[in-house]
Write a structure and sequence with these properties.
mainly alpha, 85% helix
Length: 133
């Protein structure tokens, strides 16, 4: 979903602001995407019954912090991307990325919880049922 969605705001920004808009779209989209992927990696590393919440909180910190830091750095530097609407583009990219990241993080946490909470007897029953099918 994100790969299909990402070019659309970049195209609109290029049509309105030229190269500055395209640069702003690349910076905003890249910051949102990288923050989300690194955050999902953190969730994957910490997906256990005792560390799942910390992983999700760390993922949200990375997913929100990296785009905000990018916006602040671009605005402070005064490069042309600052005039290309990077703040609006970051919001446009952030919302769908947040939705996808949250969906995938919940799935990662749930998959880790199922593996951790199964007792050996339950695993044997599951294996026997799978072989019987």
């Amino acid at each position: 979903m994100v790969c299909v969605y990402y070019p659309v705001p970049g195209w609109i920004a290029y049509a309105n602001y030229g190269v500055a808009g395209l640069t702003a779209a690349l910076l905003a989209g890249g910051a949102c995407f990288i923050g989300s992927v690194v955050g999902l990696g953190l969730v994957g590393l910490t997906r256990g019954p005792h560390t799942g919440v910390q992983g999700i909180l760390g993922a949200k910190l990375l997913g929100m912090g990296l785009p905000l830091a990018t916006i602040a750095a671009v605005q402070a530097s005064g490069i042309p991307a600052a005039k290309g609407g990077i703040l609006i583009l970051a919001v446009v990219y952030f919302l769908p990325t947040l939705a996808v990241q949250t969906f995938l993080a919940v799935r990662l946490i749930n998959s880790g919880a199922k593996r951790v909470t199964m007792t050996p007897a339950e695993q044997n029953n599951t294996n026997a049922e799978t072989k019987a099918s």
